[in-house]
Task: structure prediction
Amino acid sequence: MPDTKEASTRVNFTTLSFLVCVLVLSLSFLIMPKQGFWINDNGCKFMQVESIIESGFKDFSIRYPGKEYDPSYEFNPLPEPFGRRTGGKLYANYSPVFAVVSAVPYMLFGFAGLYVLPLACALISLYAVWVLSGMLPGPGVKRSLSVLMTVLCTPFWFYSVTFWEHIPAICLVLWAVVGTLGYVRTGRIRHLLVSALCCAAAVYFRDDLYLMCAILCAVVALRGGRWQMAFLHVLILICALAPLWLFQWRTIGTPLGFHISSVSLWDGGFAGYIEGRRSVLGLMFGAHGTPWISIAANVPFLFMFIINPALKDKVFRKSVIVLSLIGVVQGVTLFWGHISAESPVWWLLRANGLFAVSPILLLAFLRKRQAASLDADANEGSRHLSPGFLIWLIMILHAILYFVLSPGDSGGIHWGNRYLLHFYPLMAVLAGSTVARWLDCPGNRIHSGSAVLSAIVAISIAFQVYSIRLLYQRKSFSELVNDVVQEQAEEAVIASGSFVPQELARAYGSKTMFLVPGGEEGVARLAGILGASGVRRALVVRAYRGNDTTVPGLMNDGLNFMCLRMDSVDLSAKGSD
Result:
């Protein structure tokens, strides 16, 4: 009878955890402005969506009506690194796959349809988290804790309600890891197929996940040194990726896509490569605008990440509390940096590292050592490698490869580390197991340390709530700016500011938009060209960083991130000059 009652309680808690996650993501989606975007990457992808739909899914370039006045593409709205001119057409540097898949729900449901794929994949990802957590040692509650941590305590929440390909890619990566771990444990070919096919599918959305393909092949080979199965894994990957290579070759002229083809680590020689590694370190571990605080905040995470200790019961119980206390101090310090920043958006350039916004994940790399028969993670003599070790191994290998191979100029305004975003649910799986096993220790549920554990959970949730508020503010301003531009009578829009066309992505389809290099001199030159071609008026949109109080008539985003000024300019006189 007690076993039945315990099983019923476990089922109820599992159901509750999924319901909480569904409710949180659904409410976030409902309140979030649908017609605005977080940053220029999202706007560029929306420009892809509209151009593909307009062509009837026959052309995957970005429409550029301005080429009538600008045949040399000097003023095209998507210069490098966002776009390029190839074969007389303008292309985004991103693979069109995400745009093609997103175009269908957008046609069916309007702007709300843009978020169908990220939200659906978020929910499917949570089931993968549940499955992965079940492979780890510890009481059954670990599954529910891992699911809740993934949504409430990591950037997974933020990206689930953002028009970006990250969550679809993460979903596929998680299921690839499920397949890989399943194969290592059982040796069944169907698990190998899941691993290879899902990992290949993830590359369709994000080409940096070629690294994950290599890592999972290596992990497959660990099962008794069966390199022939690793070769089969590679063969399946190639077969699954071949349609992508063919699609990209036919649609944009390069099988690997513009994004990965344009990466060159050695353009600046060895010195340039080393300087690039310094930039990548900032991307991986930036946590605060003050360097020494950022370093101090990362030390405990890096120490635990690298050594990944398995501890005896008494040491384990104390370590959970000590690490939670460290995490609370780290979290409060970093959170104060965010809320006190002069510009919370620009602050993210220096505070978007892997360990910057989820203090609870400090517990991911703490294992409890038990008898081999009771704890697969501690069973060094086990015939199969433990799932917990393999998850850690996958992350450590990916972190090393990312550091070595990532271009140094891939920074940006992100919440957490979006390039290693799949680490967050994987770390949540490990942290969920740690917390569940600590709670399972006699007396710990009413232990004074539970207050510290509650505090680290609370500060982790506070980070994510803050990010959703920040996302809401950015998208609201983006939506407002596009509304204003679309209401203007001028058909031609002259943008001064490299990111303005993507910021005005929704207005792009109804306007003829140009981007001018060279500041006011470029504006004057383009105005002369348009005036001479018979264009009577143009809307000039100038961007300023922060909140420039010296310039009148600005639209301010309220975040001290950017502001815009719009001026209607008469071009008829310029045409007669």
In short: Residues 4-31+112-372+385-441 form one domain.
